[in-house]
Design goal:
The complex is a heterotrimer. In chain A, 84% of the residues lie in helices and 0% in strands. Chain A contains three helices and no strands. Chain B is mainly α. Chain B has six helices and three strands. In chain B, helix 5 packs across helix 6. The longest helix of chain B has 27 residues. Chain C has four helices and no strands. In chain C, helix 1 runs antiparallel to helix 3 and helix 3 packs antiparallel against helix 4. The N and C termini of chain C lie far apart (55 Å). Classes of the chains: A mainly alpha, B mainly alpha, C mainly alpha. At the A-C interface, helix 1, helix 2 and helix 3 of A face helix 1, helix 3 and helix 4 of C. Chain A: It is a multi-pass membrane protein. Chain A: Its main location: membrane. Chain A: InterPro entries: MrpF/PhaF-like.
Chain lengths: 89, 168, 114
């Protein structure tokens, strides 16, 4: 059952990622693009974890954790830049 | 102000945080053994010792039991909020009535306010957007705002009062 | 795939978590693509995607806890991290949007002017 469900879930997440890409391309403002990138990061975490399950490795969490970290720091840094014009005051 | 050299404040400024770091380390290496527990404890003591100069005042958790209840309520509300938001997204956009409202805070502790703002962002149809430190208010955006007073009262009763109890 | 030796109840639970998570995350991203202005778009990802990925991670946690010996708890770490950071990044993005004076949809109530 799980062998059948994992590809289905991956497909759903891939469609979600495509929707994020659409928002990334359309904009209209730069903040929308930051939001789209942030969501793309979150969805890619799920895709990585699902791929990990499908291959039966169980070793890719570090990757998921790293992407979560990078996504968060990147989002905050870009928002901060828009707020102040500087990343570090 | 530096605490005295011999006091606990100097060597172990945040006992709870040290414990939390040790647990986090065990979670991260995904292995429970004496060696890793010791390493985690060493990190838990070392990291706060080096960095506590950068931190604001410690928030006091007065009552841990209401905190647990609060987390449970939060978990249920996250689930409920997701169903609500999902339905709103699926229905045509003309049914939406988005709006901002200003939430007057009663809490004064920074950490408690952070938790409240995060809670507001994770629960039904609301995202906290701006914190005004002078007026002590939160600017909140609601996906579907029917009655401001009702929304404010709901947040106060469901989240702020329990938090007040925990951090008083 | 070696999921044959799993009890079917556990399989059902894991499958439900994975499917539910994927559906919720898809709805969140659908909201991001469809909703009319930035402030409403902010709601989809911060709630739905976080819960969706959280469910997927819990499903994976259960799966690997059974596959490998011992409990695999690293996914819980990612879940906690996501739930702690999603409101913060939403807050920062909302602030940036207010700062850039993004317009709301017509009919938005009390849009602040700064």
């Amino acid at each position: 059952m799980i062998a059948f469900v994992i590809p289905v879930a991956m497909t759903l997440f891939a469609i979600a990622a495509l929707l994020n890409l659409y928002r990334l391309a359309v904009g209209p403002d730069i903040v929308d693009r930051i939001l789209a990138l942030d969501t793309l990061m979150i969805n890619s975490i799920a895709l990585i974890v699902l791929a990990d399950m499908r291959m039966g490795l169980g070793v890719l969490f570090e990757l998921a954790l790293l992407i979560a970290l990078m996504g968060f720091v990147g989002t905050v840094a870009m928002s901060k830049y828009l707020l102040r014009g500087d990343v570090i005051e | 102000m530096t605490p005295a050299f011999r006091s606990r404040q100097f060597w172990l400024p945040r006992p709870l945080f040290s414990l939390f770091l040790a647990l986090l380390w065990l979670l991260m290496v995904n292995e429970v053994s004496v060696a890793h527990a010791l390493l985690g404890l060493a990190l838990g003591v070392g990291i706060p010792f080096v960095t506590h100069g950068f931190w604001p005042e410690e928030a006091k958790i007065r009552r841990p039991l209401p905190l647990l209840r609060y987390l449970l309520v939060l978990l249920v509300d996250i689930l409920r909020s997701n169903l609500v938001v999902a339905l709103r997204i699926l229905r045509p956009a003309r049914h939406l009535q988005p709006g901002f409202f200003t939430y007057p805070l009663v809490l004064e502790d920074d950490f408690a306010i952070t938790i409240l703002a995060s809670t507001i962002s994770l629960t039904p149809g609301t995202v906290s957007i701006h914190y005004d430190a002078e007026a002590n208010t939160l600017l909140v955006h609601a996906l579907h705002l029917e009655d401001e007073a009702e929304a404010i009262a709901a947040i106060r009763e469901r989240y702020e009062q329990p938090l007040e109890e925990i951090f008083r | 795939m070696t999921s044959i030796d799993m009890p079917w109840t556990l399989q059902l639970v894991v499958a439900t978590f994975l499917l539910f998570g994927a559906l919720v995350a898809l709805i969140g991203s659908w909201g991001l693509a469809k909703l009319p202005d930035f402030y409403t778009r902010l709601h989809g990802p911060t709630k739905a995607s976080t819960l969706g990925v959280g469910c997927t991670l819990i499903g994976s946690l259960l799966y690997f806890s059974h596959q490998q010996d011992g409990v695999s708890v690293q996914e819980a770490l990612v879940t906690i991290f996501l739930f702690a950071t999603a409101p913060v990044s939403a807050h920062m993005m909302g602030k940036a949007a207010l700062r850039r004076r993004l317009p709301g949809v017509p009919g938005t109530r009390n849009l602040p002017d700064r």
